[in-house]
Each structure stands twice: as C-alpha cells, then as structure tokens.
Amino acid sequence: MQYEKVRTAVIGCGTISNIYIRNLSKLFSIIDLVALCDLNPETAKEKAALYGIPRVMTLDEIAEDPDIELAVCLTPVPGHASVIRRMLKAGKHVFSEKMLTEDLQDARELTALAAELGLQLGCAPDTSLGAGVQTARYAVDKGLIGQPTSCLISLNRDQSLLAESFRFLQQKGGALPFDMGGYYLSAMLMLLGSVEAVQAFASPALPHTPRNLYRGDSKDSFTIPGPAVMTGGLRFASGVLGSIHLNGSSANPEKPILTVYGTEGRIELGDPNTFRGPVTLVRANGQSCVLPLTHGYDGTPVLPDPTPWETVYGHRGIGAAELAWSVRKGRPARLGGSYGLHSMEILFGMTESAETGKAVSIESRVDLRPLPPGYYSAFYSIDGSSRGDAELSLAE
Ligand SMILES: NC(=O)c1ccc[n+]([C@@H]2O[C@H](COP(=O)([O-])OP(=O)(O)OC[C@H]3O[C@@H](n4cnc5c(N)ncnc54)[C@H](O)[C@@H]3O)[C@@H](O)[C@H]2O)c1
User: Crossing angle of helices 104-117/77-89, nearest 10°?
Assistant: First the structure.
C-alpha cells in the first residue's frame, strides 16, 4: 500500500513512552516518529538517543512545525488538557494516553473543539483494539451467545499499596475506578456500545501507612483522593444491563472479570489491560472453549530483539496508528470521537450518582467500529522467519 507516512511527535517521555516510541517508530509503517518532547529536555534527549529518533523539540516548536501532523500525548493526566488544547489549536491531530483529561468539562470542550476543527482526537486504552477484545466482539457479533442481555465487570486491587511505588496514584485521578476503570469500560463499550444511564454507590479510600512490601520507599502516610470502591449498575442504550464493581481496597491478587451473558451462552474476557484475552465461550449446555484469536495485535513481541517493555505493554500504540491510518483514509478514527469522553462520563456519572443517590443520564454516545478479522500479529513462514500482516487490518 502506498500511503504517505504521518509525521508524529511524542510529548511526555516517561515510563509509558518507552513502548510507544518503540512501537510507533518500528512496528507501524504508517507512522514517521520525527520528534520527542518533554518538560525536561534531557529526558527527551536520552530517549531520542536510545531509540534513534531524529529530533528533540519544545511544545511550541512542535506547534509551529507544519510538517508534524499528529501529536501523541503521554504526560501525566493533569497535563493532558493543556497539551491537547495547544496541539489542536495548532492544527494537529492528537492521540492521548488515558484518561483524556482530569476534568469532565475539559474532556467535553476538547472533544467538541476537535470536531469543530475537523481534527481527530483519539484516546487510550487501545487494548480495546487488541486481539482479545476484538475476538470477543467478533463472537458476539456472530451471535455465538445469542442476544446479549447483561454484563458483569469486576476488578480488585490494593491501589494504596501500588501507590507507594507509583506516587502519581496518590493524587487526584489515582483512585482505582479512574486509573483502571477505563480499561474495563472501554472493552465493554467495544462489545455492547453506549451506556445511557448509571446508578452507583461509592466509598472513600482509607488512610494508608506505607509498608513498602512491593518496591517502594514511601515514608509519609497518604489517602488516595476520590472513591476507592465503586459499585453500580449500567444501562446500555441497547437495553443490556450491567453490574460494575471496582475495588481499590482489596488485598487479594487482582482478578479481572468481564463477562457478557446472552440468550444462547456467555463470553468471558481476559484482563483488558492486555491484548491477548483469553476469550472463553460457554454455551447453554455448559460446554466451553477458549476461542482462537481472530484478530492481529495479540501483544506477542514481533520486533527483533524485543525489549522488556514489549513483554509488559504489548502493542500499545495501535490506537495512534489506527488514527494515523484514519487521517490518511479520511474517516473517523475508531478510538476517536467520544471514545475518551464516554468512559469519563460514565465514571463521573457514577461518582455523582453515589453522592446524590439518583441515577445519572450519560450524554455522549460512541459508535465503535470493530477491526476486520483474519490478520495475524506474527506467523512463521516456511523459511522460519516471523512475519505479520496485522497492520492491514488498521488500514481497512
Ligand atoms: N506507567 C504506566 O504503566 C502507564 C500505563 C498506561 C498508561 N499510562 C498513562 O500514561 C501517561 C504517562 O504515564 P507515565 O507513567 O509515563 O508518567 P511519567 O511520570 O513516568 O512520565 C511523564 C513524563 O511527562 C513529562 N511531562 C509532564 N508534563 C509535560 C508537559 N506539559 N509537556 C511535556 N512533557 C511533560 C514529564 O517530565 C515526564 O517525563 C499517564 O496518562 C498515565 O495514565 C501509564
């Protein structure tokens, strides 16, 4: 396929930038990663040298460079709104890490601004484009569970223990529902479409004295702001009803549950923070099987000399690459439009419902087009070399 690459800059060169820089520069042919930017220029220089990226630029230089078409925002969440606004106003398409913004009003304003300017504003989690969630979507679309009628979403984690090491979690936005809820919601939105109303209960985090069991060296006690535990109900626009349970004050090992029940069976998804499922189909007679993945981007490292980042973070960057293909094809990006906003409206709606005791209507709607099936992250050809054709699925 002959398409001009989309010249791209990454803004924010911290932990997660490693996998983005690696995949955007090496895995996705549609992207030309031309520049890195960080508040701390030394950080950007180090990453540029490590990954062979030609330029280090300031935010203003990126804004003023007419050749750069796409900005990928990987700053911590409090910085998202100002970076996204600056880039949109400079005429750049933007893909941002989750959550889209810290405040709901900013998310609404920026989603509207992108639409008004005719620019794409995409948002993580992009694991919803991974082989696991896409295989589940394919199975649901093919009627393997009949008509979906309800769903179950559950995640438990000791968020305070984790926040000893990842200190940004000690601040606003660090509560489990906001830090992780988006992965679970976006997977379910990919399967079942928009949520139109929510009702919820919530309880705050308990004060936490660091125990440094994991690998932290925190000394001061802290309390993560916002709801530590949220439970509630979701009503999807399709009429499907959902139960959601997000518990950030749970000592047990994390156990992700994402299940859709239907008139002919149920489907169980794996951890939506990964790309590879597994996806289990259970039919009405109780027989079950793990479905073979029908889509590419299953998180398997495919580049030569894989780094540890690929083992942990898989094919992150697929959302930005799909957005780049969408720019070239002149169509809406799959994770653009209201995708980032909708999960936020659900989580903020649940918070409001817990405070008021009333159900809350969700304003925005999503229309999440699946990726086409039949592509592979990697397969081994007759001569033993590894090849994959998954990028063709992003171009369709
Ligand atoms: N770390 C993870 O495991 C992980 C996983 C998934 C998503 N995320 C998301 O990725 C984003 C970044 O996370 P991280 O862990 O890489 O953070 P980090 O703190 O490791 O790095 C953030 C970097 O952004 C830079 N920065 C901050 N404000 C900036 C600005 N205005 N302009 C340019 N650079 C700026 C900082 O100097 C820093 O180098 C967050 O939105 C987070 O929710 C992180």
Answer: 20
